[in-house]
Amino acid sequence: MNARPATCSIDTVLFDFGGVLAEEGFANGLRTIARNHGLDDNEFLELARELIDSTGYLTGRANESAYWQAVRDRTRVAQSDEELRNEILSRFVLRPFMFDIVRKLKRSGVRVAILSDQTNWLDELDATLDFFTLFDAVYNSYHLGKSKADGSHFPEIVARMKDIPERVLFIDDNDGHCQRARDAGLNAIRYTGRDAFEKEFALYCRL
Q: What average pLDDT does the structure give for the chain?
C-alpha cells in the first residue's frame, strides 16, 4: 500500500546546515577550543564569529589560514589550522530525523535546498558524508559572496529557486536570520529543538 501523499502549503524548504540539519559544530567546536586554552568560551565564540565575518572567510574573500591566523593574533590559541578545523568539523553530526524529512519532502515533490552561512568546510563535510545529492540546490555564503546577515540574500535565493516568497519555508536556528526571511515575505521556523520543530513544521506540511 502506498503511503498517503504529503499535504503541504509550501513548494520549497530551505534548510540551514549547522544547528538544523546537523548539530551546531561551529559553536560547539569553538567552545571546546576556548576551554582547551583557558579562555572564556562566550567571549571567544563572539570574537571568532566576528573574525570569520571581518576577515572575509565567511563570504569567500579570504582563505581558512587567514581566518585562523586572525584568531591566533587576538587570543592565546596556538593549535595548527588542521587541529582547529578538526575541532569544528568533528562536531557537525548529522541529524537523521531531519534527513528523513528531507527525503519525504523530495519524494512528495517539494523542493529542498540548503541555505547556509558556511565556508568551504561545508564542501569538506559533504566529501566525507555525501549529503548534497539529497538536495535540489546548495546555497553557501562562501561561494555566493553574501550571508544571511544581509536581508537582500533571501529574495535573491527565492528568485534563484524560481518561486514566490509565501510558498517558501526557511528553517534556521538563528532568530535574526528567521526575522530577515520573514521580512522578505518567506515563512520561517526558528529551530530550538525537535519536538517544537515538528509541531510547527506540521502547520506547513504533513508528511
A: 96
Distance in angstroms (rounded) separating the CA atoms of residues 32 and 50: 18
DSSP string over the chain: -PPPPPEES-SEEEE-TBTTTB--HHHHHHHHHHHHTT--HHHHHHHHHHHHHHTSTTTTSS-HHHHHHHHHHHSS----HHHHHHHHHTT--B-HHHHHHHHHHHHTT-EEEEEE---THHHHHHHHH--GGGSSEEEEHHHHS--TTSTTHHHHHHHHTT--GGGEEEEES-HHHHHHHHHTT-EEEE---HHHHHHHHTTTEE-
CB–CB of 57/119 below 8 Å?
A: yes
Mean pLDDT over 97-115 rounds to: 97
Closest CA to 6 of 137, 112, 157, 158: 112
> Could you tell me if residue 77 is left (phi over 0), alpha (psi between -120 and 50 degrees) or otherwise beta?
beta
Strand partners, 170: 14, 188
